[in-house]
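We examine the record.

___
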Amino acid sequence: MLHQIVSHIARRWQPARLATTPAERRAIARLRYQIYVEEQGDARPDADHHARVVWSSIDDEAGTLHYYAGSPERPAGSLRVRVWAAGRAPADVRERYGLARIPGADRVAGCDNTFLMFRRSLRGTAAVAAMLSTAARDVVDRFGCHLVFATCSPGQLPIYQARGFRTYAWAIADRSFGLQVPIVGATFDLDHLKRVGSHLWRAWARHLRREE
């Protein structure tokens, strides 16, 4: 119950929005540079040091969405989501998340959540998981995604498990983010979502009823 209250407060004060304008996407690209390059010293190949942005061709693909928290001019955090139709998961996604481990994964639409980041003052707070949860609800409604993939640090795992995400594979070593645990949320995993008290349960249950 406590984590749900904290998440509600975090969503209220740091609501996640879908970036729809070039200016919003540019602000997200600058935030990435500030955190990954300037703060963390990550020598990213997708960094433009002249423009002081981190952006790649994937960010401009039709199936890529960008969410952010805070103001459009100075976002406090952001998240990149890539969606795909059934059987159309990108090759790098299939490898990163080991989609072959999940029976039936190719028969449904899914999405991949990466570049989940926040300014230092909000890291480790419920705002981080609230961002992923907001995006998870949105992509299910907009694109009919039934599998929502992401990774998290081992220390953050209980927060995501409380929202109904499950682990299914060994942790992987990420060059930029360190040790990461693959997790997945499934719209049809309603009994589990309800059992752990996930606020995704009602939203995903409504979506499944609309599809029937």
